[in-house]
Amino acid sequence: MAAILRSSVKAEVSDFDFVRLTSNPYFGALRDTLMSDVQQTASIPVSLMKVEEPQQETSLDPNIVAIQEANLMSDFQQVMPSGNQKVVELHEFYNKQCSSIENERNEAIQDLKENNMLSVSQYQRELNRIHVHHDQQRMHLTNRVTASLELLKISMPSNREVSSSKVKGRQLSSRGIEVMTDWYEKHIDHPYPTDEEKQALANLGGLSLSQVKAWFANKRNRTNNTKPKKQKIQVEKRLISICSELSGNNRPQPRLYGDIIKQLSDIVQTSHAFLRGPTGLLSDSYNSSGDELEQFCSD
DNA sequence: TAGAATGATTGGGA
DNA sequence: TCCCAATCATTCTA
């Protein structure tokens, strides 16, 4: 397949693209599937499907290895915070194998240096062969670990929950709910996490920052714990208190009504947020205000 | 299956 | 840019 690709679109496919294609972790599986199909249908000569393996001594662009390793490290950094044991083990395995390859490389170079029987050109050729060999080993290792990490990412329950939670209406991860609820209950009087706290909660719960923000906004709103709602509840309590005072048996003397009106004026003055809101008691069409009430009181 | 619960989005105010 | 209230969309549950 790669041979076909290479020969048919040689002008467009660079060596870089070709190596990227053949080093893709799914390339092998795709090749095997196609080979199987070819053998079953016998409509395409198998020889055409033969993969052109890179020459053993062909030098490998170190940039490709570096890019692949950087991508793998980036993947690890994304998944590691989940604390998944298998990911941790895979990461350790990868680091050990890399160290092992580099140790072998260094030993081989050291042996080469100690060999005084080689000419300069022979030495250079041999040195190149050592680097190519070990670069290929690292590339194969990186590909294998990348494929394993992909499988782990798919199988991770927390990851499934996080990705699926992007869909509307899906439950957030239980860990995420747990840490946010815990924080909310501990800060019930002021449930407004700072940016740093939001980020920490997101990291702890495996959530995005916007999910944390939305969860707290919903939580405050649905438990009547937003600032305007709390203020409104306070005002309602004071109004009920005044009403009961006015209608009760211990009704105040008319000369004390001024005090009550003053109290009502204070309530209007301090309740701007919800009284003047779009659904408030004092909408734009209602022109009365605390000041007017104050004026009425003094009259 | 209807209603509740919940995550996400939107538009407006500060 | 944050917060809020309202609303939508989806899932859960009795």
UniProtKB/TrEMBL annotation:
Homeobox domain ranges (all copies):
163-226
Q: Does the keyword Nucleus apply?
A: yes
**Pfam families according to UniProt:** Homeobox_KN
| Nucleus in keyword set | yes
- What SUPFAM superfamilies does the annotation carry? Homeodomain-like
Q: What SMART domains does this protein's entry cite? A: HOX
What GO molecular function annotation could you give as one example from this UniProt entry? DNA binding
Gene Ontology cellular component annotations, sorted alphabetically: nucleus
Q: Where in the chain is the DNA-binding region found? A: 165-227
| An example Gene Ontology biological process | regulation of DNA-templated transcription
Q: Output the InterPro entries linked to this UniProt entry.
A: HD (IPR001356), Homeodomain-like_sf (IPR009057), KN_HD (IPR008422), TALE_homeobox (IPR050224)
List localization entries.
Nucleus
**Keywords on this record?**
DNA-binding, Homeobox, Nucleus
Name of protein: Homeobox domain-containing protein
Organism expressing this protein natively: Dreissena polymorpha
